[in-house]
Write a structure and sequence with these properties.
Blueprint lengths: L4 H18 L3 E4 L4 E4 L4 H10 L3 H7 L5
Antiparallel strand pairs: 1-2
Amino acid sequence: IGVKESHQMTIFRIIAAILHLGNLEIQAERDGDACSISSEDEHLNNFCGLLGVEHSQMQHWLCHCK
């Protein structure tokens, strides 16, 4: 469809990251008011690696609004 190979790889990397994000195991805490994600979660590790984002920051912002 006329998309450069480098752009295709970027698109595939983003799609793979989104699929890993959907597989995260988020644990509810304190009557459902808070949550946590294990630092050992392989899907979080893959997501961060694919998008080049900091693991601890992503772990925090997925569970906090502020």
